[in-house]
């Protein structure tokens, strides 16, 4: 880094001044390249400026180079590079703080900047460093640390009016990064306040500038994905279309392609496989060209799903293998665990149940090692293992009874725990989203296992339970729908409380007492037997910590 010298010195030679102006123009060009996702060219340009900046001894320009490089490394998941840029920025700013404190008298004699200019430079690049730290923490899943640095960035003093617009940009961009990272870790509820602030920041039509457009494309794409993952498919579409149109107008091919990828996920979730296939094939060339590992992995996931849908299992396994490899390179345990579950469906469809079970065991190990795992993820994993046992029972009549019993012990408690969340949600639309996008598949699988097992008592108890709660449906086979949902399961949320909060104790009613919210009391359908599903409800409580039954007097359901 250049020494703390004559940044902006009034007596600088004309040649140095002209060189500085040219460098500033190149720095602006590098910013344009980065907005267009041409990070390679932007990086090369920035690195080429460093010798010239050192020659004219301009620390402010060198700080700008490191700040822009840090943003590029952050986008490209080159996190060691972000750390190095933060170190260089911190070292330079510390020199100026030491000079101000009288700790570097020799260097102080070389400084020709006014105290006001030094203070402005320190303020600007302290903010840029806080932005990078926020993004880096969010990318690593260190969400509490990200929230702390984001708060520090928001609170940075606003005494320099010429830096106000940049500060606003940094804050909004950091909020988007934090919100997207939370969603990436299935922490959708925690992202809601951030999304609200982002759209408060972007309220109005905008100024039409490049920075404003970049924020709106990032926000629209990220929030569109949030909507898809929380079951708000109709809300996602206009956000993604607007973001895509804005990106296309700017010629930002990757940004436009990323909106197409999110629209493909929405189409897949809605069951429109043809539309999903068209969109992901349209998006992939730009995604492959720019080689963003996470986007590449998600594209290969959908290529694999499309192959499964047409029975091309070898092709599907290869494509899903590409997705797994990229996610392993990124070190994303939650995504690796999901792709292992998806690949196990290929094994199931091949009839290789041992290989499928091994993949689930590996997925469980990854999930158990992840500190932010939730009971919902474990319930879905248990349900999936139950699906393997169910398929194995259907394939081997000699072991069917044992396998069906084991499958029921996994699938029924998981379904009861997951469905119990639905009855803690006060809003009817939100309750419907949870039922459709989360509960339905698990409940249908639990009912199907009981039916195929021939356990009429369990079938009767499930019917009794759901007569009090809602309708059920049974898939035609264990393979018709489950494989398509494993890696794309939604996590609908609508309240700012923990999404997995389950109501217990006395319930509440809405709509003139037609709908009861909260856990049901024990249901007894036969005076000669105990409450229905008692054993499975207890398993749900033991495994997932969900209180499925309210502590009230039982309901007698016989005539």
Overview of this structure, please?
This protein has 559 residues and is mainly α. Among the domains are: 1-113, no CATH class; 374-559, no CATH class. It is 71% helix and 2% strand. The chain has 23 helices and four strands. The strands form two sheets. The chain has a two-stranded antiparallel ribbon with strand order 1-2. It has a two-stranded parallel sheet with strand order 3-4. Strand 3 (523-524), helix 23 (534-544) and strand 4 (555-556) form a beta-alpha-beta unit. Helix 18 (375-395) runs antiparallel to helix 19 and helix 18 packs parallel to helix 20. The chain starts with 13 loop residues before the first helix and ends with a strand. Mean pLDDT is 86; it is low at 1-11, 471-476 and 494-515.
Report strand order across the widest sheet.
1-2
What is the helix fraction of residues, given as a range? Answer: over 70%
Order of helices and strands: HHHHHHHHHHHHHHHHHHHHHHEEEHE
Number of helices: 23
Shape field: elongated
Gyration radius, rounded: 28 Å
Q: Main sheet, how many strands, which sense, barrel?
A: 2 strands, antiparallel
Q: Taking all residues together, what is the mean pLDDT? A: 86
Strand content: under 5%
Structural category: mainly alpha
Gap between N and C termini, in Å? 85 Å
Enumerate the spans where pLDDT stays under 50 for 5 or more consecutive residues: 1-11, 471-476, 494-515
Number of strands: 4
Protein name: Tetratricopeptide TPR_4
Organism: Mycolicibacterium vanbaalenii (strain DSM 7251 / JCM 13017 / BCRC 16820 / KCTC 9966 / NRRL B-24157 / PYR-1) (Mycobacterium vanbaalenii)
InterPro entries: TPR-like_helical_dom_sf
């Amino acid at each position: 880094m250049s020494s703390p010298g004559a940044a902006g010195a009034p007596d600088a030679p004309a040649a140095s001044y002209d060189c500085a102006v040219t460098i500033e123009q190149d720095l602006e060009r590098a910013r344009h390249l980065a907005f267009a996702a041409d990070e390679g060219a932007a990086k090369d340009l920035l690195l080429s400026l460093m010798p010239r900046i050192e020659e004219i001894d301009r620390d402010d320009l060198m700080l700008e180079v490191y700040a822009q490089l840090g943003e590029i490394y952050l986008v490209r998941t080159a996190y060691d590079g972000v750390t190095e840029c933060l170190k260089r920025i911190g070292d330079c700013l510390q020199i100026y703080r030491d000079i101000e404190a009288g700790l570097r008298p020799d260097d102080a004699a070389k400084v020709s900047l006014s105290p006001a200019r030094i203070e402005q430079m320190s303020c600007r690049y302290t903010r840029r460093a806080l932005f990078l730290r926020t993004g880096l923490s969010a990318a690593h899943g260190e969400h509490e640390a990200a929230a702390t640095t984001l708060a520090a960035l928001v609170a940075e003093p606003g005494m320099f009016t010429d830096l106000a617009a940049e500060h606003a940009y940094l804050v909004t961009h950091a909020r988007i990064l934090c919100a997207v990272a939370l969603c990436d870790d299935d922490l959708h509820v925690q992202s809601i306040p951030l999304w609200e602030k982002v759209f408060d920041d972007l309220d109005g039509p905008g100024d039409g500038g490049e920075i404003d457009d970049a924020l709106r494309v990032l926000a629209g794409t990220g929030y569109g994905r949030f909507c898809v993952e929380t079951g708000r498919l109709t809300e996602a579409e206009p956000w993604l279309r607007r973001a895509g149109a804005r990106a296309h107008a700017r010629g930002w091919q990757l940004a436009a392609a990323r909106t197409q990828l999110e629209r493909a996920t929405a189409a897949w979730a809605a069951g429109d496989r043809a539309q999903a296939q068209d969109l992901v094939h349209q998006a992939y060339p730009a995604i492959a060209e720019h080689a963003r590992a996470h986007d590449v992995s998600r594209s290969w996931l959908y290529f694999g799903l499309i192959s499964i849908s047409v029975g091309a299992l070898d092709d599907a396994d290869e494509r899903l293998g590409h997705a797994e490899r990229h996610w392993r390179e990124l070190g994303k345990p939650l995504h690796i665990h999901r792709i292992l579950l998806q690949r196990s469906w290929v094994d199931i469809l091949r009839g290789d149940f041992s290989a499928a079970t091994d993949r689930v065991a590996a997925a469980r190990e990854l999930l158990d090692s992840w500190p932010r795992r939730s009971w919902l993820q474990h319930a879905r994993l248990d349900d999936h293992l139950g699906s393997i046992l169910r398929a194995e029972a259907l394939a081997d009549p000699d072991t069917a009874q044992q396998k069906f019993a084991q499958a029921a012990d996994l699938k029924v408690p998981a379904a009861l725990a997951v469905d119990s969340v639905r009855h803690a949600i006060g809003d009817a639309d939100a309750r419907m989203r949870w039922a459709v996008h989360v509960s339905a598949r698990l409940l249908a699988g639990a009912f199907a296992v009981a039916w195929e097992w021939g356990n009429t008592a369990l079938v009767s108890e499930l019917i009794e339970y759901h007569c009090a709660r809602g309708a059920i449906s049974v898939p035609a086979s264990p393979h018709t729908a489950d494989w398509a949902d494993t890696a794309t399961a939604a996590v609908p949320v609508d309240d700012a409380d923990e999404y997995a909060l389950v109501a217990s104790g006395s319930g509440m009613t809405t709509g003139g007492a037609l709908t009861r919210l909260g856990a049901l009391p024990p249901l007894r359908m036969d005076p000669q037997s105990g409450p229905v599903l008692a054993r499975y409800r207890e398993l749900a409580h033991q495994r997932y910590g969900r209180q499925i039954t309210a502590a009230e007097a039982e309901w007698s359901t016989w005539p």
